[in-house]
Specification:
The structure holds 2 protein chains of 2 kinds. Chain A is of the alpha+beta class. Among the domains of chain A are: about 1-35; about 40-245, Histidine kinase-like ATPase, C-terminal domain (Heat Shock Protein 90); about 265-330, Orthogonal Bundle (Helicase, Ruva Protein, domain 3); about 550-640, no CATH class. Chain A has helices at about 1-20, 40-45, 60-75, 115-120, 140-150, 215-230, 270-280, 285-295, 300-310, 320-330, 350-355, 370-375, 440-445, 455-460, 505-555, 560-595, 595-610, 615-640, and strands at about 80-90, 95-105, 155-160, 165-175, 180-185, 200-210, 235-240, 240-245, 360-365, 380-385, 390-400, 400-410, 420-425, 430, 480-485. In chain A, the strands form 3 sheets. Chain A has an 8-stranded mixed sheet with strand order 5-4-3-6-2-1-7-8. Chain A has a 5-stranded mixed sheet with strand order 11-12-15-13-14, with helices on both faces. Chain A has a two-stranded antiparallel ribbon with strand order 9-10. Chain A is built from 18 helices and 15 strands. Chain B folds into 2 domains: about 1-35 and about 65-145, Winged helix-like DNA-binding domain superfamily/Winged helix DNA-binding domain (Arc Repressor Mutant, subunit A, Orthogonal Bundle); about 190-365, Dna Topoisomerase Vi A Subunit, Chain: A, domain 2, CATH 3.40.1360.10. Chain B has helices at about 1-25, 70-90, 95-100, 120-135, 200-210, 210-215, 230-240, 255-265, 275, 290-295, 305-315, 325-335, 350-365, and strands at about 35-40, 45-50, 55, 60-65, 95, 105, 115, 145, 150, 155-160, 160-165, 175, 185-190, 195, 215-220, 245-250, 280-285, 300-305, 340. In chain B, the strands form 7 sheets. In chain B, strands 12-9-15-14-16-17 form a 6-stranded mixed sheet, with helices on both faces. A 3-stranded antiparallel sheet of chain B has the order 11-10-13, with no helix packed on it. In chain B, helix 2 packs across helix 4 (about 120-135) and helix 3 (about 95-100) packs across helix 4. Classes of the chains: A alpha+beta, B alpha/beta. The interface between A and B is medium-sized, with 27 and 32 residues.
Amino acid sequence: MKSSTTLELKYHEKRKKNYNFSNNNIDNKKVKIKYNKKAESEFFVDNSALAGFTGERILYMAIRELIENSLDSCEANHILPEIRIELKHIDQENDLWSISCTDNGVGIPSEKVPVAVCSFLTSGKYVEKQQRGLFGVGLKMIAAFSTKDTDTPIKIWSKDLEEMVEYYHELRTDISTNKPIILEKNVVPDSDSIIKHNHGFKISATLRARLSPITKNKINDYVTQSSIVNPYADITFENDDGKITFERRTEKMPEPAKEVLPHPAEMDLQTLKKAILNFRNQKTTIQGVLSNSFQKLSNEKAKEIINRTDIKNKPADQYVEQELIKIVNICKHTKFQSPNTDHLSPIGEQILTAGMMSEYTIVNNKEQNISKNEGNGKNINLKILKPAMTSYSSRSTVINNRPTIIECGIAYGGDISSFKLYRFANKIPLLYDEGSDVAREVVSEVNINKMGITKKDAKEQFAQGQNNLKSDRVAEILPIHIFFHICSTKIPYKSAGKESIASEGDMKRYMKYCLSDLYRKVSAQIRKDLKIKEAENRLRLYKFYIPLISEAISDTLDINIEKLNQAFNYVAEKHVKKERMHEEQSLDTEENSNNSGKKILKERKKQNLILESNRHKKIHKEEKKEKKSKVSKTLRKNFEKPTLFDFEIR
Amino acid sequence: MPPRNKKHKDIIKKIRLVMKTISDEVLIQKKIPELEIAKIGYDNTIWSEKKKMLTIGEKKVVVSPNSTKKIPTFAQYLVMANAVRKLLDEEMESTIRGMYYATLSSVGDDRNKEKFWKGQEDSDDAIKAIELITGTPREEFSVTSKPKGMISGPITLSVGGDTIDCNLGSRATSQLIPTNTLDVEITDVKANFVMVVEKDTVLNNIRKSGFIQKYKAILMTGSGEPDRATRIMVKKLSEDWKLPVVVFADADPWGLGIALRYKIGSESLSYDSDRLVTPRVKVLGMMFSDIYEYNIPEVARLAASQEDINRANDMKKKPWLQESQWQKELDLFLKKKEKCELDAFFKHGFKYLAEVYLPRKLQDAGVI
């Protein structure tokens, strides 16, 4: 009792102190705490960091949200996306930016446009399937910020897939109530139509924000990387530096994610209650509710669960919470089949390869020739990087009870000049916090050295001129781009910022498998290239050093330098050629032994039976050979059959 | 000097022969040429129980322009061989640094320009290779290094005909030991023994105290790692003039190593041990036990580094340090983990080293 009063006193003192700062008059008055309900919009505007909208990053986040919404809107109905984004600095003095995004997605029904744009936590995305973006917050954030900082309304043109009529809206958000304010709404006559397709959506907003060069680059990176994992999208990006178009490189789109029932392993009181509520008018038994509301839960299984609770079977809505929690607990301890992955939409080998094969990068030619380009605002260009080879690998697993698909791609050589790691989560590029991402750890921990690529060779052949190498790791010296894509309905992000992924469960292990696969696939090529480069290098060295050697010899022996030079060059070239031929031969024989690997094995076994003990030595030798062919066989297997989704769910 | 010229002619002949073999390989046999050279280093150094010194083993390395790494090396050796040939043809002398400059150039085109030598170490290595190829020490082909060793005492040298008296009356300076060893001749010695110390600072202190006059001693130092001229001088005094030679170095594994250079030789010069090593040298100090016997105060002792410890552990296994006295000393060091410089005796007074420590040690050893 005593202690609690002192605590209370302390508490009051603290409060008093706090108020002293603001108002001395309140000094001895009792303060009454008011309990108010805060509108969602007000909460999110006050805590904008929750959605990533912080100072520097406002424009970056806005672009991100708009692109993601557009892509989702297209993919839901298997529409090849066509997206145009514009970001223009319209008022330098007041830091005002105009941002707009047009797509050919399914649009939003005219009735829903105001709430979909302005009301927080209203979304068509609250279902169990893989989607991009923050559900029901991003677009609203743009609307709220626009309302908060400017007097310009948000302009929306929307042509819904079913309505087929283009509506124009001018909206603002009533931040204190989370409700839209409709300033204007009308049907757009065909003559003024903005949406060119039968369906689509355009938003135009004004935001107050600052944009540092770093964030500007991040926006560029975001658009570029989006185009890598969405090569089926046609994305046009225009800013004050110019206009660039990431052309569509494949017509193939990933299978859209399907909505699925929740898995019983994730069941809690809330999900169970919700499920019961869905059946409330039908007098359904709890057994029926369970088997109809969760995946991998058959009628028999449901029965078994109910039996174990020792509760009489009665209509579902007559259960009390205590009984329900019993069911939940039993489900937690019951083994179910692994969840299915229909609700996930991985990129897939074909599409990712299309993205990797022509990787776009933005080239800023502002620095180089200002005078030339100043007038027309054409300061950025696109360059397409074509690698010499790409490879793909994927694995599925269950992490935190959620099925997760890991995809990994590698692009090597060609136009690629140095190492780079790309990370994606549900097709969204992750640009910040690379250092703490699990992908970074995976790259550090999988050794490419084991594939016969030594650091020394890699450094000698690839690191020339790169004096300030950031890393000593072999892979990071090589000209490779590594892509990791994690798909899940619940990505284990490290922090609220959602920019890096934590290593949870088997995630890292499976990522490592993928990367090892890829290293195995590209290493033969890299080894070959290293050899070729070495030969080139050597020829270059011969060119430089032979004259010096010849001079030394002819000076001492007094013989003709030209003749010696010629002879020496001939010998050197012959030597390099011979070595190369020898290498190619050995590569060929390696392949041959691959093809006939099985045959050889059988024959050897037969022979071994016949062989007598005095030929022991020979057997030993052949065993060695066998081992060799075994190794290369597995190599070949991986090469032939790029495992699409070998469901290794345990 | 006809004998010297004859030697020079032999060396030129050897270089010509090597060049001829290479050019024949290229011109006639049409193959990548090869140069076989004795391997230098710890893995080709053998302890000779008979000679009591380190000698070079049988291992060879083949230097051939068949890999990226060896193309420059091969060119460097040949360019250096030609430069040595030229030097001898012109009857000139050079230091190793001079040879570095004489052969300096750049290779490659405008885009890939490299230096022919990365540094003087590269050209020093090439000179060593020429020594091995021709089987002659570089002094014999007139390539020397900067003098580094010092000598003081009743000894007279003749250097290329000029007389140098090292018994400098002033006690104020020492004579540098000339590095053109072929030109150096010892003409007169009036000393009872030779004392070599590790560092010139210690030598200066001893000289100043009148030690030379009192004990009729020749004082020498290699100023740390001794150069070839100093080692050769020690050998001549010991073997040609039959003088006892004693060595004093710091009481740490490093100092012991330096003292042993005179006595058993070194891995990097094992191919030239017959000319450089004096097995009869006595290493008298400073012993690790002296630190405690002569009460070197704790402030003047130094803590042993991990490197020192590793080195001492290594030394314990060496065949030339198997005598119980050395094993005891090294065990003591490994136990106490303390080392000490000769200079530490100055803590007992500036004359303590020359007037107490050294005479006592020399008496114990029966040198005086």
